[in-house]
Design a protein that fits this description.
This protein is an alpha+beta fold. The protein has helices spanning 22-41, 125-132, and strands at residues 2-8, 53-64, 73-83, 87-96, 101-114, 119-120. The chain starts with a strand and ends in a 7-residue tail after the last helix.
């Protein structure tokens, strides 16, 4: 797995119970996804001038493992769990460095998306080869 995001849980990210609210977990995982897609494929939202293809999340499964409080320092790592014909499954693990524990995981299915046709497209051989370099053993 590779490090794809570092952050801190600020007080304004916490809810009335005193821990980071779910909306900010998803924000952090979303930012991490851009770093992963760039690291694996060289893709960013601005990298395709013709805007012919991109990546679209179609499924998220989040597990909140341990409480994150204001001031906790977080680091998210990710790797590719599966490569399909039109999609990849990515596993993200958010570590609470202050508490030295797993805070949350996200398993995301992401399709290669034709931005003109507005539908999933087949993953090319070059993208598949890049993705295979980042395959992880499923947990």
């Amino acid at each position: 797995m590779i490090v794809v995001q570092k952050s801190v849980a600020h007080p304004w990210m916490c809810d009335v119970l005193g821990h980071m609210t779910t909306r900010f977990y998803l924000n952090m995982f979303d930012d991490a996804s851009y770093h992963l897609l760039y690291e694996v494929f060289g893709w960013s939202g601005a990298s395709d001038d013709a805007m012919e293809r991109g990546w679209a999340d179609v499924k998220h499964v989040i597990e909140y493992v341990a409480e994150v409080k204001a001031g906790d320092v977080l680091e998210t790592c990710a790797g590719i769990k599966n490569i399909g014909s039109k999609s990849i499954t990515i596993r993200y693990e958010m570590q609470n460095l202050h508490e030295n524990e797993l805070a949350a995981t996200l398993e995301c299915t992401c399709v290669l998306f034709d931005l003109t046709e507005r539908k999933a497209m087949v993953i090319t051989d070059d993208l598949r080869a890049s993705a295979q370099k980042h395959l992880i053993t499923p947990k």
